[in-house]
């Protein structure tokens, strides 16, 4: 019995010693990682008036302080991480709150080869329900290098091409023949749904840029599909014929299976590829003898019209459905081209009916729009919204390739940088009976109000209202803003 007691005591002392060593090791480890704890323990040991028990209590307090410090730092770290996550969420929310602007990341690459590419922007309403008026439209941009050939294909949508830059050739197939047309910068070409076509860059050095609006055929209202159907092709691009069974193909073309497979395997150059000069000459359009034209209308150049608005600060060209020779007759569509002089701006205006899809093709600048459909994240705006309508400013930097959309009724403005002119091509859908109504400049809607309405709307005399809103320029103005700090300094010196 005594032997068992001594053994139990020995085991107890062994575990106690191990625990003390472990705590000592932890304390030493903490001392090495935390100089403040090390200093505190050292000071406890150096107190001559302390006995061993007092020193132990002192070191325990050092440990308690160290634990409290660690917990406080942990809470601060967690709070910082939560703040960072909140900032990230707010940043993402801010990006989501601008569904009206599309950058490179919003485009889908449909074709990408060494000699050219096609980028597509489809299903606008997938970015936001606010764009449901744009759900049936799509936008593609073709970039083709010198002497590049885009293989014959067709779409199940109506396509309106705008030749942004370069010199091209478009070939259109209608039943038993192909009609070919030269394309110059500013040309508009309408291609009916299902029409087989090909495109060529006839310039050896300059790139060809073509923007295309895809819209449903007149008999349909479903969203468009921007996938091209390549018919006269092989394996790359893949022909639509490869989807059919070999028996169907043999019966349709009266050719054996092996011969058909060998024939389709010949084409492996890709959807866009470079061609030789002799091939290019064979694609050159033939001159038709007037008045015997073909089934397709010639391209219509937007610059052949006089500008709708023009002064030293910018110009605006328009082509609408009333232009019979433009090819847009029968379509509820208008094309516009704005060239805003560097350091200038358009007026603040809105379209009464048309929904605008705008593509920046050159220069840099800014875009601002008033939107009543989006709530501001600021509490002040939320308080205002509870009692009255609050408008949020939608803004974005503009550069080549940026797309922005403006729903009907939304006032907006575009501003050119001080370095370059800002050039924008716009597809305006639902353009029938559309009016552009401006808030500033000659013939603005505020100046057109009767005197009593002006007085009631602004609580000012009609003369004071006219002082603000009247100016001689129409539609385009200089973007010169007085320095408010200098103005306030001037007032203080008076």
From TrEMBL:
User: Does the keyword Cell membrane belong to this entry?
Assistant: no
Q: Which residues form the signal peptide?
A: 1-27
Task: Tell me the keywords, alphabetical order.
Answer: Signal
Q: Where is this region: Disordered?
A: 69-99, 372-391
Pfam families, sorted = Cupin_1
What segments bear the compositional bias annotation Low complexity?
375-390
Q: Does the keyword DNA repair apply?
A: no
**Annotated Cupin type-1 domain residues:** 121-261, 300-466
Q: What is this protein called?
A: Putative rmlC-like jelly roll protein
Organism of derivation: Medicago truncatula
């Amino acid at each position: 019995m005594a032997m068992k007691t001594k053994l139990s005591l020995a085991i107890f002392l062994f575990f106690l010693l191990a625990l003390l060593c472990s705590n000592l090791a932890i304390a030493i480890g903490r001392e090495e990682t935390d100089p403040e704890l090390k200093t505190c323990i050292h000071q406890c040991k150096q107190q001559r008036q302390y006995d061993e028990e007092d020193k132990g209590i002192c070191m325990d307090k050092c440990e308690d302080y160290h634990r409290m410090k660690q917990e406080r730092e942990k809470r601060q770290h967690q709070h910082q991480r939560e703040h960072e996550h909140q900032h990230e969420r707010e940043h993402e929310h801010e990006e989501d709150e601008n569904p009206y602007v599309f950058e490179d990341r919003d485009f889908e690459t449909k074709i990408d080869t060494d000699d050219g590419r096609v980028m597509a922007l489809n299903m606008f309403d997938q970015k936001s329900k606010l764009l449901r008026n744009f759900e049936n439209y799509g936008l593609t941009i073709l970039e083709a290098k010198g002497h590049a050939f885009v293989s014959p294909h067709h779409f199940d949508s109506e396509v309106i091409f705008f030749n942004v830059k370069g010199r091209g050739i478009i070939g259109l197939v209608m039943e038993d023949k192909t009609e070919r047309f030269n394309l110059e910068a500013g040309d508009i070409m309408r291609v009916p749904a299902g029409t087989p076509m090909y495109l060529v860059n006839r310039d050896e050095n300059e790139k060809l840029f073509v923007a295309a609006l895809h819209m449903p055929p007149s008999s349909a209202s479903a969203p468009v599909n921007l996938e091209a159907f390549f018919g006269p092709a092989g394996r790359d691009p893949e022909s639509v014929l490869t989807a059919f069974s070999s028996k169907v193909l043999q019966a349709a073309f009266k050719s054996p299976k092996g011969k058909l497979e060998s024939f389709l395997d010949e084409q492996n150059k890709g959807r866009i590829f470079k061609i030789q000069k002799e091939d290019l000459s064979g694609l050159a359009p033939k001159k038709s003898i007037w008045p015997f034209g073909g089934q397709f209308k010639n391209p219509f150049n937007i610059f052949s019209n006089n500008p709708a608005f023009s002064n030293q600060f910018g110009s605006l060209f328009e082509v609408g459905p009333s232009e019979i020779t433009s090819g847009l007759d029968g379509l509820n569509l208008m094309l516009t081209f704005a060239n805003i002089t560097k350091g200038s701006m358009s007026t603040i205006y809105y379209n009464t009916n048309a929904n605008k899809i705008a593509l920046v093709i050159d220069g840099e600048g800014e875009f601002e729009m008033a939107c009543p459909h989006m709530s501001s994240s600021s509490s002040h705006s939320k308080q205002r919204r509870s009692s009255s309508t609050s408008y949020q400013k939608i803004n974005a930097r503009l550069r080549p390739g940026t797309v922005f959309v403006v729903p009907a009724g939304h006032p907006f403005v575009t501003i050119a940088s001080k370095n370059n002119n800002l050039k924008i091509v716009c597809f305006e859908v639902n353009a029938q009976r559309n009016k552009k109504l401006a808030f500033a400049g000659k013939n603005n809607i505020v100046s057109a109000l009767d005197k009593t309405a002006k007085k009631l709307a602004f609580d000012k005399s009609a003369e004071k209202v006219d002082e603000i809103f009247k100016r001689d320029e129409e539609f385009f103005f200089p973007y010169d803003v007085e320095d408010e700090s200098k103005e306030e300094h001037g007032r203080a010196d008076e």
